[in-house]
Write a structure and sequence with these properties.
By secondary structure, the chain is an all-alpha fold. It is about 60% helix and about 0% strand. It is built from 11 helices and 2 strands, in the order H-H-H-H-H-H-H-H-E-E-H-H-H. Strand 1 and strand 2 form a beta hairpin.
Length: about 270
C-alpha cells in the first residue's frame, strides 16, 4: 500500500502538463505563422507580377519594349516605379492612342486591380517611387498658407497660380489641376510626368507636398470665390504674358509718341 501511495500523481500534475502544452502550441504558432504570412504575401506579389506581365505584353510592350528596355516610341521603364504607372495609367494618359508631343488625359481603360498588377510588374524591373498611402497625400491638418507659397514658387510658372494650366513650348502644355485626385497630385510631384520636374522627399518633404495639395484643393474648391487678379479666361502664363507685352508695351509706345509730339509742338511755339 505504501508503494502505491508513493506512485500516486500530484494533484497539480495535470494542470502543469496542460500549461506546458499550451506554451508549446503558442511557441510553435509564433514560430511558423509569420513565415506562412510572409510566404503568402510573396506568392500574392508573384501572381500580381505575372498578371501584370501579361497586361504589359498586350498594351505596353509595342512602345516600351518586351522587357521595359524602351524603344524609339517609348522610354525605358526600369526604375520609374509603381507610382509612375499608377499615375500614367490611372489618369488615362497611358496607353497612348497615337504618338504626340504629350500624352493627354483621357478615359481610363484599365481597372484599378489591373493598374496595380501593371505597377507590380514595372516595379520588378527596377526600384522606383512606390504608390503613396492615404496618410501620405491626405491634406488633413496641412498648412494651406505654406502650400500656396510653395506652389507659387515651384508650380505657378507653368500651371498658373490657381492651377488653371497653360501653354509651354513646342506644342506642350501644363494641364489643369482641377478635378485631379489627391493621390495623382502626389504621384505627379514624386515622379515628374511629361515635362514636369520630379520632387522626391529629399527635395520636397512629404509635409510640403501635402501642403501644396491642400492649397490646390482650396483654390479649386469654391468656384464662386475670386482669388484676385484678371484671369484672362485662365489661359495660362504664356498667353497672359503675351497680353502684357502687347497691351503694356503698346501703351508705352503710344505714350512715348504722345510725349514726342507734345515736345515737338512746344519747341515750334
Amino acid at each position: 500500500m505504501k508503494k502505491l501511495s508513493a506512485r500516486r500523481r500530484h494533484p497539480l500534475a495535470a494542470v502543469v502538463v496542460l500549461l506546458l502544452a499550451l506554451a508549446a502550441t503558442g511557441g510553435l504558432y509564433a514560430a511558423f505563422a509569420p513565415a506562412d504570412k510572409a510566404q503568402a504575401d510573396e506568392t500574392s506579389q508573384s501572381l500580381a507580377i505575372e498578371e501584370g506581365k501579361k497586361l504589359y505584353a498586350v498594351g505596353c510592350a509595342s512602345c516600351h519594349g518586351t522587357g521595359g528596355q524602351g524603344s524609339t516610341d517609348g522610354p525605358p521603364l526600369a526604375g520609374v516605379g509603381a507610382a509612375a504607372v499608377d499615375f500614367q495609367v490611372g489618369t488615362g494618359r497611358m496607353p497612348m492612342v497615337a504618338q504626340g508631343v504629350q500624352a493627354p488625359k483621357k478615359k481610363v481603360v484599365y481597372t484599378q486591380a489591373q493598374i496595380d498588377q501593371l505597377a507590380a510588374f514595372v516595379s520588378s524591373l527596377g526600384a522606383g517611387p512606390s504608390i503613396p498611402t492615404k496618410d501620405q497625400y491626405s491634406p488633413e491638418g496641412a498648412d494651406i498658407g505654406n502650400g500656396g507659397e510653395l506652389f507659387r514658387n515651384n508650380c505657378a510658372q507653368c500651371h498658373n497660380f490657381t492651377g488653371q494650366g497653360g501653354a509651354l513650348t513646342d506644342g506642350k502644355y501644363a494641364p489643369k489641376l482641377q478635378g485631379v485626385s489627391q493621390k495623382h497630385l502626389y504621384e505627379a510631384m514624386t515622379t515628374g510626368p511629361q515635362n514636369m520636374p520630379s520632387f522626391p522627399d529629399t527635395t520636397m518633404p512629404e509635409k510640403d507636398k501635402k501642403d501644396i495639395i491642400a492649397y490646390i484643393n482650396a483654390v479649386n474648391g469654391d468656384k464662386t470665390v475670386n482669388n484676385g487678379g484678371l484671369t484672362l479666361g485662365g489661359l495660362g502664363p504664356v498667353s497672359e504674358g503675351l497680353f502684357a507685352w502687347i497691351f503694356g508695351l503698346g501703351a508705352l509706345i503710344v505714350v512715348a509718341i504722345w510725349v514726342a509730339a507734345r515736345t515737338a509742338k512746344a519747341k515750334k511755339s
